[in-house]
Amino acid sequence: MEVAAGHGLAPITGSSGSVGVVGYLLGGGLGPLARSHGASSDRVRGLRVVLADGSVVETTAEHEPDLFWALRGGKGGLGIVTRVDVELVPLRTLYGGSLTVDGADAADVLRAWTRWTTTAPDDVTTSVVILSLPDLPFVPEPLRGRTVLNLRFAYPGDAAEGERLAAPLRAVAPALVDTIGEMPAAAIATIHADPDDPGPSWVAGAELRTIDDAFVDRYLGAYGPGGDSPFLGAEIRHLGGAVARDVPGGSAVGGRTGDYLLAFVGMNPPLVPAMVASFADFTAWSAPWAASETNVNFLPAPWTEEMLARAWSPQTLARLREVRSQYDPDGRFPFGA
Asked: May I ask the CATH architecture of the domain 93-298?
């Protein structure tokens, strides 16, 4: 990113600066600029792939187009990707960062954000996460041992306009920490501030068509202050905008139909059974709001055939199976069960 930044350019990245590029892009990729710029794989212009028979293919929209279609969002079972060519966008700075409020204000901020998203312009991408932070030295002292709500904001435009757009969110409650402001595009990973060091984690996600006060009540009861959540973070990302619009020629990216993405992250291995049970409970009670698809990068393991069927429409899933059988007829790169 630093090299591109020297030319006033930037890739459309994910929320973390340490996630593997290939795996992220093969699943589509929904990052801090998703509403303004779409899935990150929408900017992929070519891939080099080692196929099951050992041959090497350079695939683009014009060469091996079925494989190119499948690799942008189809995730796996197609070959080993050894190179990805991506289109950069003109972007030197953006207005972004995060706003952290005390858990006591989480309900007010979450309800205000929910209403705000219904009229938010397509070029603003936001999310909120309830964090149950441990009382450990690596956590900043003002947040240590607290349950807080962190609101993330990214607007790739004029700082004055970004400040105006963020003002209603800032006005809801006093901030413990406010880092929203003009920033270099190369620093975009600081918006979510995901840890760079490796560590154990369990991740699960689901997409929703919509959310309302009834959903917010259940969400706060399960993951807000006093909810006894096993997760470090329970996040809601606002989708729609450019995410909902497929690229010319189409791609296999799943999850374009949802307006919100739920992502749960836990990092305490002994609590994994509680995380699995909590997510199963969430899946049951959130069914009235559920979208028809959830992006494959956010599906919990293990990835069975039944689980993967939730990642794409029946039409896309059927075409993916056809392309996989064409390029890996013997199933050397099994994907799913």
From this structure: 3-Layer(aba) Sandwich (3.40)
